[in-house]
Amino acid sequence: MSNLSCAPPTDVDRLRRPDFLLSLVAGFIITGVTFYYAYLALCLIWKTPTYERTAKTLLSQLLFFSVMYEIFYCIEEFISFYKSIFDFFGIYQECIPLQSALDCALRFKCLMGFTSGMIYNQTGLIIERLFATIFTEKYTNKIKLNIRVIVFWVVPLSSILTAYLIVLDDPLEGYVFACYVIPRQSILRTKIFLVTCFVLTLLVSIMALLIRKHNKKYEFSTRFKVSSRFQNRQAIETTNTICILSLFSSIFLFIYTVGIFVLLAVRPSISPFVFNIFVTYVYVSFQSLTFKQKFDFQTIPFVAFMIPHLIIYRIRVTRRKRVHALNGFAQVKQTQDEHINELRVMWS
């Protein structure tokens, strides 16, 4: 076996460390938990009347991207796990084999595609919310359907295109520790992609906050039109959920992007042992010596893991608010004049 296809000493040490094995086991647990909560979130989304159908469809697509990312990431963790076990029992006598970059091409594209899918999906969600906010009265069911269909298909097509563009013209030579490691010739494109995703998510967060503020301002401006009030409540609850998802993604994408450049800067000045300990305990996998060598930096599994939890949290918060409001109306005893005055204030 060629020396190039054998794991270097730093990777061998990494595979033999107990904390790395524990991180792999934690990854398996996280993947299983993600499956369960994604299913639970999917059921709750379609049972919740305060979310519009377009938002339900796109949130379901977002859950699909997050689950698929976890599946492919779990495959890479499993490969690393069995390599560690084989090495422990002495099955690998001469060296621990690495994976061919060419063999990893499809899995790497899938990981990048599902990552971009989560980002593009949130962008599509906020664009749909923007249309719903600007064209409130003219936003008919036919327009909603058209936008839903366009966003639903543009997002996966853009994700596929992004995955192929990242490795475009890359000969995919050499060997990598795992398939989430960025190929050598694709590092620059990946950096541009990560920075673009962060800027895009930041803009989406700003738009979501502005739309939320607008909806909140006009929440009680529809007087006694119950259907309009309900539509406003749908817009507010949908936008609040999208806003929280976008803010959360922005935080992790900031870590995801800035972390690459910081670790590249400090890597030459710290020992491999300290470096590996650091990246393991912050749940990232990173391998780099210079800008010309391969590296990977993973915080996206946390985003995929937390998406269903955040959706479930928002749905439960909405339900608690409704129950609290109903209980408040049931417990408060008012005279007829007090009730009329309260209605006047509410609908003014």
Which features does this protein show?
elongated; two-stranded antiparallel sheet; olfactory receptor activity; Rhopdopsin 7-helix transmembrane proteins; 2 strands; 348 residues; 74% helix
Strand order of the largest sheet: 1-2
Segments where pLDDT lies below 50 for 5+ residues? 281-297
* Rg over C-alpha atoms, rounded to the nearest angstrom: 24 Å
Note the run of SSEs as H and E: HHHEHHEHHHHH
**How far do the termini sit from each other?**
80 Å
Q: Can you tell me about this structure?
A:
The protein is mostly helical and 348 residues long. The chain is 74% helix and 1% strand. The protein has 10 helices and 2 strands, in the order αααβααβααααα. Helix 4 runs antiparallel to helix 5 (141-166) and helix 4 runs parallel beside helix 6 (187-217). The longest helix has 41 residues, at 226-266. The protein is elongated, with a radius of gyration of 24 Å. The N and C termini lie far apart (80 Å). It is found in: Membrane. One of its GO terms (cellular component) is membrane. Belongs to the nematode receptor-like protein sra family.
Short description:
The chain is mainly alpha-helical and 348 residues long.
